[in-house]
Structures are given as structure tokens and as C-alpha cells.
Amino acid sequence: MKKIGLLLLVIFLIGCATQKEQIATIGPETLDSQLENLVGQIIADLSQNQKSKIAIIEFSNLQGQITEFGQYLAEELITRLYLTNKFEVIERQLLNKVLNEHHLNLSGLVDESSARELGKILGVDAIASGSITDLGNSVKVNARLISTETGKIFSVASVKILKDDVIRKLMAQAVESTDIVAKESQKASHQNIMVEKEGFKIELIKCEMSNRTVVCHLIVTNTTEDDKDFHITYGWQYQTMIYDDAGNEYLISAVKFGNEYHKIKGISQYSGAKKKIIAGLSVTTELYFENVSSKATKITLLQMLCEYRGFKVEFRDIPIKKI
């Protein structure tokens, strides 16, 4: 009995030692340790998918804003990936120059067409972007790796980091992004012209008129965990249209998703355009209305039908900028 008792005691002590060793190995969820964890996941995924040239986009919060913490994450990923000597990482100054020169739509949320276009211009295999979620005492960082060949996500990585005073300070400092879409998204959020429905966040940025054609600029974000089609429908029962300040109505004539232009022809329940938006990503959207009165100064109502017999979105009292 003594031998059995001694054996059980030895097994118990070994188990405790092993558990302590595991806890020590995991370590605290500090910024530096979790950045190493995140980089390790990204390196494994890039190597597995044979990606060697990568661009890093600034991380945004769930409101689409770029903070100093989002910039810090991007800079750290650039440095740590470069130091592995396994990857060619695009320098930030060059990336920002290309974004501005080509008016590419890149931020923490990246649309397919912009990802493919950046791949052609810079010759990168992949884009790393992501989001930051404030969980109170910690922050969750979700990174997405996007193939520039397909524009689709091929891998994800995530870590949770304990929030200390340094992180709090960095997250509190919003910055003006070099990315055009991020700038416009920040403006839209500031104006609070936004609707969330059916897993989409639809932000109205501005409406402009040139040669009697009004263009309404929006950013549509898929807020779900699944890829979804977003529809703008001409419709029969609830048509996509605008009303000016004289009460005149104008039906939609065209839709542009990213760099994809769709001319709407005819009147039927099937007339319209759609765009697949990857989970967590966004796409710039433009709605065109032709032959609008040159005297119109504002849109009293913009009503959108999203999918035939789908959900409805409305914006009111939108000033028209003449250009």
C-alpha cells in the first residue's frame, strides 16, 4: 500500500509540474508576446500558401477608424516579417504613394478588386489587413491574409492582448489615414449617416452633381462572418430612387462597385446589380441618377431597395455638391 501511495504521489507531482510548465510556456498576453504569436501564425500561413511578397495595411477598429495602435501593428508586422529574411515586404512610403496615385480602396477592410489591382501594380502575392476589437481589459486583433490573385481571404490569424496604459494611449489617438476609403469612412462615421441592416453597414459619404448627373457615394461593409451578395435593385414595388427638394423623383441609372460599373436597363424585378462582399470587408459603392434638375440643392430622400423584395434603406436631407 505504501508503494502504491508513493507512486500516486509521484504521478500527482509530475502532473503539477507539467501543468506549471505549460502555463509558463503560454505566458502572459502581453503586447510583445502576442505580436510574436501573431507573426508566427502569419509566417506559417504565408509559407504554406507559397506567398513571398506582401503588403501590410493599417489595422482599423470596428468603426473603420485608424488609430495609432492600428498603425503600430502594421509597422511591427512589417519589421518582424522582414527580419525573418523569408519575405519581401513593401515599404510603407511606397505603398502609401501607390494608394494615393491610383485611388485604391484599401484600409482595415479590403475589397476584392482593389486587392487584385494592388497585386498587379506592386507584384505582391498577398495583403495583410485586419481589425481591432476593444474588449475592455483586453483587445482582440484579427488579421486576414488576402490573395491578390483572387482577391479572397486565404487565411486568418488572431490574438488577444491585455490592455495596458501604452495600448490605451495608442488606441485613443485617431489618425488621418493615407487610404482614401478610410478617410471617407471616417467622415461618414463623423456625420453619423449610416444604416445597419441584414448584416451590412451602409455609410453615405456624399452626393455630387455634374452635368445634371447625381452620384451618391457610399461604403458598404459586410459585418458578418460569411461572404454575402449585396444587391442594388431597380425593382417594381420599391424602386431605388432619389427625390430632390422640389419633390421630383429620379430612378437609378447605374451602380458602381469598386471599379465594376453596371448600367441598369429596362424595368423588371431582376434589374439591378450585385457584388459579393467578403466577410468583414467593404466595398466603395456609387449610385448614379441622370437628368436631375440643375436647380436641385439637396436630396430630400434617397431610398434603396437591396435585393428584389429585400430590405430597404433610406437616407434623408442630403446636400448636393455641385462639381
Describe the model.
By secondary structure, this protein is of the alpha+beta class. The chain has two domains: 11-176, 3-Layer(aba) Sandwich (Rossmann fold); 193-322, Immunoglobulin-like. The chain is 31% helix and 37% strand. Strands 7, 8, 9, 11, 12, 13, 14, 16, 17 and 18 form a ten-stranded mixed β-sheet that branches. Strands 1, 2, 3, 4, 5 and 6 form a six-stranded mixed β-sheet that branches. Helix 3 (68-82) packs across helix 6. The longest helix is centred in the first third of the chain and has 25 residues, at 2-26. The protein is elongated.
The first-level CATH class of the largest domain is given as: Alpha Beta
Count the E strands.
18
Total separate domains: 2
Considering the protein shown, what is the CATH homologous superfamily of the largest domain? Answer: ABC-type transport auxiliary lipoprotein component
From the coordinates shown, what is the CATH architecture of the largest domain? Answer: 3-Layer(aba) Sandwich
Percentage beta strand: 35-45%
Order of helices and strands: HHEEHEHHEEEHHEEEEEEEEEEEE
Q: Span from first to last CA?
A: 94 Å
Could you tell me the CATH topology label of the largest domain: Rossmann fold
Structural class: alpha+beta
Oligomeric state of shown chains: single chain
